[in-house]
Amino acid sequence: MAVLLREAIGGSLRRARTARRRTLREVSRQARVSLGYLSEVERGVKEASSELLASICEALDISLPDLLTAAAEEMVQSMRPQMIVPIGQRHADHRIAGSASAVVSPQPVAAPASPVASVSAAA
C-alpha cells in the first residue's frame, strides 16, 4: 500500500527532529504548536497546513523544500514494486545457469522518475 503524503511528511519531520536530538516539547515550543498536535503530525494522523509546516521546519532548521523532497522520496520508495520470485523460479534459474554461460535472473522493474526531480530539472 502506498504511503500517504501526511504519513511521509510526518516521518520526515520525526527523522529530522530525532537526528538533531530534539524533543517534541522543544520543537513544539519553538514552532508555537501544541505538543499533542505536533505528535499527531509526526505520526501522520493530522495533515498540517503549509504555514504550520514552515514553522516546524524553521524550528528544526531545515527548509520546507528539503522536507517535501524527503517526503516525496519516501513515497516513491513505497511505490516501487517488490521483486517477488515465484516458488521454484530460483531452482529453474540454477538449472539454466548450469547449461548456459550466464545466470538468468529476474530483473527489477525500473521505478518511475521522481516527480520532484522532474520539476526541479525543468526549472
Domain count: 2
Give the rounded overall mean pLDDT. Answer: 80
String of helices and strands: HHHHHHH
Low-confidence stretches: 100-106, 114-123
Level-1 CATH class name of the largest domain: Mainly Alpha
Distance between the termini: 31 Å
> What is the CATH architecture term of the largest domain?
Orthogonal Bundle
Notable characteristics:
7 helices, disordered C terminus, elongated, 123 residues, 434 Repressor (Amino-terminal Domain), mainly alpha
Structural account:
Helix 1 packs across helix 5. It contains 7 helices and no strands. The chain has 2 domains: 75 residues, 434 Repressor (Amino-terminal Domain) (Orthogonal Bundle), CATH 1.10.260; 34 residues, no CATH class. It has 123 residues and is an all-alpha fold.
SSE layout and pairing:
Layout: H1 5-19, H2 24-31, H3 35-42, H4 50-60, H5 64-79, H6 89-99, H7 115-122
Helix pairs in contact: 1-5, 2-4
What's the short story on this structure?
By secondary structure, the chain is mainly alpha-helical.
